[in-house]
Amino acid sequence: MEVKIGVQFAPRELVVDSAQTPAEVEQLVADALASKSQVLTLVDEKGRRVVVPADKIAYVEIAEASTRSVGFTAR
Q: What is the pTM of this model?
């Protein structure tokens, strides 16, 4: 699953490919924004952690990972 995080004052968004479910990610974001924790921590598919200060989160987009077509294909 792909998670895009917009961070205030950052020119690019963070993109994390996570093995967590959309419900788990949504709960982590809600907890971080409700000040239960001061940071949002996500783990990507390779086990790396991404930590974002909760007060700097502009938006979070949760989407299924899309596969890109290669070559010339008819749609």
A: 0.78
Q: Which of 23, 16, 6 shows the shortest CA–CA distance to 50?
A: 16
**15: its two tokens:** 């993109």
**Nearest to residue 7, comparing CAs of 69, 62, 54, 68?**
54
CATH of 2-63, one of 2.30.30, 2.10.240, 1.20.1270, 2.30.29: 2.30.30
* Single-letter residue type at 45: E
Query: pLDDT by residue (tens digit) across 15-25?
Result: 999 988 999 99
Per-residue pLDDT of 19-44, as tens digits, reads: 889 999 999 999 999 977 799 999 99
Closest to 9 in 3D by CA, of 56, 71, 66, 61: 56
